[in-house]
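Hi R.,

Here's the input for the uridine-diphosphate-N-acetylglucosamine complex you asked about:
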Amino acid sequence: MKLILVAGARPNFMKIAPLVRAFDEFNEQRRSDGAENRKRERRGKKKKKRDETGSTNGEKIWYLLVHTGQHYDDGMSDLFFRDLGLPKPDIYLGVGSGTHAEQTGRIMVEFEKVCLREKPDLVMVVGDVNSTVACALVATKLLIPVAHVEAGLRSFDRTMPEEINRLLTDQISDFLFTTCEDANRNLLREGIAKEKIHFVGNVMIDTLRRHLQVAKKSTIIERLGLAEDGEVKKYALLTLHRPSNVDSPLVLKKIFGAINEIAMRIPVIFPVHPRTLIRVQEFGLNGLMNYMKINEIEATYLTKRSNKKTNLKRMLAVPPLGYLDFLCLMSRAALVLTDSGGIQEETTILGVPCLTLRSNTERPVTVREGTNFVVGNDPRKIKEMAFYILENEIPPRRVLKYWDGKAAERIVRVLVKHFKFEYNEKSRIAGH
Ligand code: UD1
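And here is the predicted structure with uridine-diphosphate-N-acetylglucosamine in place:
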């Protein structure tokens, strides 16, 4: 079978990495099964018994990786490909930034050309970004089946662009791969046929489990001056990029006020998303944070000017970090404050307390069974909860079903069973 796997923005890259690996592993397995069968045939023995997919001859998943270019900077994209060991995209659409309509429209126009040329059997999209809905819509109109990985999550807040992307993508998808029971229920409630829903677990957690040990070897804690005599200091980690938090000067200023009060007690590290940095500059809020490149911080520590220069009574903002450095920082943090979706799940698995600075979450399982607290963006609440967490033990999380590092493998099993691999070798993707 021939499949197009789409990625566009930073959170997508962690989700496609285990899928790429699962496709490769499956193909490798098929190759050796095929070789074994041919050997047996040559020796005059009967072919091996057919497997559950009905195939015996080493057919494979020909996949083509398409990067839409929604995120394009080294720090937002290439660094993740390197950290996650992802192959270079086969096709780069280079759509870049713009308004929602501009970005979505550009992706659709370019992706349609790819689908018409490549004629895939399936288009697979992940998550909830503009690239997800744009490519799903193109495929479904060309009558190409669509698989949505991380389907069914709902914040029930239609002011969020991601909620619109999730709702629409799920309505037009043929395979809905879910991470939790809540998602299954949401999809059934929206009238999605039960046969289309496959509860497989969380591919982003596949990536976390695979990289955690390597990430722990990162030197980012030392480079940020967060260790003294080999002892890691207590510190907090902050991320912010949602329009509801960063597009209003008043709201952003209030959040920064609360964060700086936390920073009076413990260092707060803030890897800044490019859209947030633009807003901070626009609103003239630069004075509320120390913004430094990592090598400047190192130089400051080395010349022992740290206290005066870096004034750690204010949050320490740094450019976006790669996957491994960020995972390392997250895993050792006393507290994470965020408005991201994925980080709520990652902190749950790491057992690190997380304050979600939003009024809702599409991932309630991380609140019920994990370490997540949804506190909104009221500064009083943020401070209260942060200080409570810093002074109290947070109960351990429960084990979440299928967040076990094998979600991508389950997805491959579903696809193989369904498609039975009727694939014509002649239309094989060049270079694969
Ligand atoms: C997008 C996703 C959001 C996801 C987030 C993670 C949508 C609707 N939103 O939001 O769900 O959580 O990515 O980062 O798809 N920019 C750069 N360099 C880049 C990419 C972006 O400088 O490589 C700047 C540009 O100024 C751009 C702004 O960031 O205008 C916003 O980027 P965009 O991809 O449109 O949305 P995000 O806010 O990143």
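One thing worth noting: The longest strand covers residues 2-7.

Cheers,
M.
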